[in-house]
Amino acid sequence: MKQKNTGLTRRYVAALREHLKPGSGPGLQPALRLGCQAAALGLEMLDLARIHEQALATLELSSEKNGQIRRAEFFFTEAITPIVATHRASRSGKADLNLLMLNATLDRRTAELAATNRRLRQGVVRRKVMKDAYEKSGRHRDQCLKESLQLQRRLRLLTHKVLAAQEDERRKISHELQDEIAQTLLGINVRLLSMKQEARSNTKGLKKEIASTQRLVAKSAKSVRRFARELNLHQKT
Questions:
Q1: Do 189 and 217 contact (CB within 8 A), yes or no?
Q2: pTM of the predicted model as reported, rounded to 2 decimal places
Q3: SS3 content of the chain, % helix, strand, coil (to 5)
Q4: Structural contact between residues 196 and 210, judged by C-beta atoms closer than 8 angstroms
Q5: Mean pLDDT for each 10-residue chunk of the chain (237 residues)?
Q6: Whole domain around residue 101: which residue ranges?
Q7: What is the pLDDT of residues 136-175, one digit of tens each?
Q8: Among 123, 40, 117, which Cα is nearest to 86's?
Q9: What's the CA gap between 201 and 209, in Å, rounded?
Q10: 175 contact partners, CB below 8 Å, separation of at least 6
Q11: Boundary of a domain, candidates 72, 88, 104
């Protein structure tokens, strides 16, 4: 496994170097392929973060190279996508149960909406028959209109409840995704702090590289929070 990780590290460094060249054309597909290879090896996000850190050190990227640092961020974000997908697919049974309960709730409310639609159509037909009869007899016209309006109000209320439930679940999933990524980045940051304390007896250059990596993590967390806010704003519109 260590030999495979070493080979993956070499490929990661080479792909990142090619990505950072001016006018590079492959885009982020190499990063996605590397992420798939890492997921196939059973690596976690922290493992790939260490490989990314080694690559930055090998390529001698510093905080003065803000443009390259940002491009490297995008490269790393794309690389961890398959691992995040694998991690989400292997969530605990509790999360799966919650998802099943959500689907059951949505199915039930959808069935209620369909039943209400059928009752509404039946009510419209009944109202027409009643209206014709009332027009002939000249009685109870207001009652027919009142029944139709009540059916319409019930339909609007049920539709609003179903849409509100779906919107709440979308926000919940968005928050869960934000929390999951933020916790992962926090774990990386905690690890870097530990390395920084251990490096007090090491060279000054190592501390500087760790501090630079911490700033990269902070920027990644900020980007995640901004994405979540934009997603929430988009859902509200």
A1: yes
A2: 0.37
A3: 85, 0, 15
A4: yes
A5: 76 87 74 90 90 89 71 90 80 51 62 80 83 70 81 87 79 71 71 68 69 79 77 67
A6: 91-236
A7: 777 767 787 788 889 898 989 888 898 887 788 777 767 7
A8: 40
A9: 15
A10: 228
A11: 88
Q: What is the 3-state secondary structure (H, E, C) of 61-130?
A: CCCCCHHHHHHHHHHHHHHCHHHHHHHHHCCCHHHHHHHHHHHHHHHHHHHHHHHHHHHHHHHHHHHHHH
The answer to whether residues 114 and 104 touch, using CB atoms and an 8 Å cutoff, is no
**Side-chain-side CA neighbours of residue 55 (13 Å):** 29
| Residue whose structure tokens are 């922290």 | 46
Can you read off the two tokens belonging to residue 226? Answer: 């901004």
Domain tally for the chain?
A: 2
Sign of CA dihedral 125, 127, 128, 134: positive
- Are both 163 and 80 inside the same structural domain? no
